[in-house]
Amino acid sequence: MASLRFISTGVCRPNKAITNEDIACNINTRIDPDWVERTLGIRQRYVAENHVQTSDLAAAAIADLLDRAKVDAGTVDLLLLATCSPDKRAPATACLVQHKAGLANAVAFDISAVCSGFLYALSVAAAMLHTGSYRRAIVVGADMFSRVTDWQRRDCVFFGDGAGAVLLEAGGLGTNALFDAELYTDSCGRDAFSIDGSDSPFNMDGAAVFQAASNAVPACIDQLLKRNSLSADSVDIVIPHQPSHNLLREIARRAGIGFEKFQLSMGRHANTVGATIPIALHDALEAGRLSHGDCVLFAAAGAGFTAGAAIHYWN
């Protein structure tokens, strides 16, 4: 358990947007655009140009964040990148982001937990800041799943490219900026979603993913709330990873949290994997949905099978 302050957020959205209608008309005539939006909640997704790399998206999100925060890049001493679409096998893509974003003083490394990656990275950053060894951290989620999508398959509608970043500091004594996380891994679900090679399209068992996530995420939420003597009614807003609206509705039902409390951003972005939660958080702030003292619940599920939840009193 740590005390944490979110100072600022930033995002990067690629220039090219592909709608469900674009896919139906130009790529795959078997796609029903209305079904995609009704069931998944997705209207469009952003796709990066061929020359763009994951590190470019991450660095752009950080630049947006630093500009909004009016913070000198030299004061950031920790950089965590959540991604499962790295630029290359070595070095860590976070090192490339450090260079491109001008974060010369930041210790930098990658965290890979697919769609749970940002939540895992956020938990690691909170723990490292809590030790006092680091003063200011950036956690950035960036992924480009357009590169591992077979655009002739029906499941091409799920993913988009993007990046989102948050700037964090330790909360300090008396701030009441509690941060606590409950993380979970069950390798029995390791085959539900996989990518065999850097040029191979993803393979997904949608039913298995739905079942695993709808069980694991509410269980993590329940454990987390009980540990902190909170009820589902204590939660003011949920910032979730967003695989589909149907799955989020099921998680909301099982967790006993009103679906109206969920920040939904996948209509515009689709599933941006490690970037989904920070983009949703940024959108919630832009929409004025967060106030001082609000109990914020983060939740995610990803391949592996990984899952988790975290709470934070907005400060």
Explain what this protein looks like in three dimensions.
The protein has 315 residues and is an alpha+beta fold. It has 2 domains: 2-170, Peroxisomal Thiolase, Chain A, domain 1 (3-Layer(aba) Sandwich), CATH 3.40.47.10; 178-313, Thiolase/Chalcone synthase (Peroxisomal Thiolase, Chain A, domain 1, 3-Layer(aba) Sandwich), CATH 3.40.47. 33% of the residues lie in helices and 25% in strands. It has helices at residues 20-27, 33-40, 54-69, 93-101, 117-130, 206-227, 245-255, 266-269, 276-286; strands spanning 2-12, 16-19, 44-47, 78-82, 107-111, 136-144, 161-170, 178-185, 193-194, 203-204, 237-240, 295-302, 306-313. The strands form 3 sheets. Strands 5-4-6-7-1-8-13-12-11 form a 9-stranded mixed beta sheet, sandwiched between helices. Strands 2-3 form a two-stranded antiparallel ribbon. α1 packs antiparallel against α2, α3 crosses α4 (93-101) and α6 (206-227) packs parallel to α7 (245-255). The longest helix is centred in the C-terminal third of the chain and has 22 residues, at 206-227.
Question: How would you describe this structure in keywords?
Answer:
about 325 residues, alpha+beta, Peroxisomal Thiolase, Chain A, domain 1, 2 domains, nine-stranded mixed sheet, 13 strands, about 25% strand
Question: What is the topology?
Answer:
Blueprint: E1 2-12, E2 16-19, H1 20-27, H2 33-40, E3 44-47, H3 54-69, E4 78-82, H4 93-101, E5 107-111, H5 117-130, E6 136-144, E7 161-170, E8 178-185, E9 193-194, E10 203-204, H6 206-227, E11 237-240, H7 245-255, H8 266-269, H9 276-286, E12 295-302, E13 306-313
Parallel strand pairs: 4-5, 4-6, 11-12
Antiparallel strand pairs: 1-7, 1-8, 2-3, 6-7, 8-13, 9-10, 12-13
Helix pairs in contact: 1-2, 3-4, 6-7
GO molecular function: beta-ketoacyl-acyl-carrier-protein synthase III activity
Domain Beta-ketoacyl-[acyl-carrier-protein] synthase III N-terminal: 109-186
InterPro entries: ACP_syn_III_C, ACP_syn_III_N, Thiolase-like
